[in-house]
Amino acid sequence: MATVQAVLGNLSANERGILTAINTSASSFSLVGSGFIVLCYLLFKELRKFSFKLVFFLALSDMFCSFFSIIGDPSKGYFCYAQGYTTHFFCVASFLWTTTIAFTLHRTVVRHKTDVEDLEPMFHLYVWGTSVVMTVIRSIGNDHGHISRLGAWCWAQTGRTGKVVHFITFYAPLWVAILFNGITYFQVIRMLNNATRMAVGMSDRYQSDARPDMKALNRWGYYPLILIGSWFFGTINRIHDFIEPGHKIFWLSVLDVGMAALMGLFNSIAYGLNSSVRRAISERLDLLPENLRRWLPKSLRTRSQQQDSELVSLKIEDQQ
């Protein structure tokens, strides 16, 4: 992973082994979670709306980011270099796709535009193009000569130039994306809160439905926290490593590697497991023979009935 490659430094072999295990385990969870969302999109035709298509590309980026985070092996020469480039590329693409989702919500809900589907080519150019540029620039100041000393990860940055380039090409755009998402979701939620309060004042009938709707809407406010939680410790660790390059803090490295590797899992739960996905799964489960359905948890057996009144997380799906 983009952050793992910078935490090794002067850690002992035992500490490196622990970090390797944490990275592999957490990345595996993210790989399964994001892969599940990709599979749902490919299998369930009713999910192939524009809003969930953006979630699909987010999950796809997370899936490849997690996959390449697991497989790095310095003994494989140029394959190892390729692993470093692809990891950086897909991790950057992942948080850039979250900004397209936030932008789409803002344009649809706040600005009342209906042309978001026409912007899909621009989204791809923005995400994949920016990811390519950031990945190529990061090769500046990178030293591959020491790669055999680094253990399980490839393409680690050494020297102040390499660390600065790493920060500029990954953490700087990451925190810009976090800031953009935070401001965007704040504006979306504020506008919908105001609209809900007005509707409640005008209609007693709407008042009974407002509370569950607002619960779903306020959930959007947690989306920027996913990126913050995933990369906060990594950012602190990079800053500390730049200031004191010879002193590694092991517990900080553990939090750095573990939280960053779980980003794909967090995204798949927050963005992917919305009511549309759960409803599609429940409808397929309803087709199972009764003797098989009896073995399912009661919550799954009754899910389809419960979701008839549930608000879809990405409300713009109903507008497409």
UniProtKB/TrEMBL annotation:
Matching PROSITE patterns: G_PROTEIN_RECEP_F2_4 (PS50261)
UniProt topology in membrane: Multi-pass membrane protein
Subcellular location: Membrane
Top-level taxonomic group: Eukaryota
Regions that span the bilayer: 18-42, 54-72, 84-105, 125-141, 168-188, 220-237, 249-273
Stretches assigned to the G-protein coupled receptors family 2 profile domain: 19-275
A single MF term (Gene Ontology): G protein-coupled receptor activity
Keyword line: G-protein coupled receptor, Membrane, Receptor, Transducer, Transmembrane, Transmembrane helix
GO terms under biological process: adenylate cyclase-activating G protein-coupled receptor signaling pathway; cell surface receptor signaling pathway
Gene Ontology cellular component terms for the protein in this record: plasma membrane
Protein name: G-protein coupled receptors family 2 profile 2 domain-containing protein
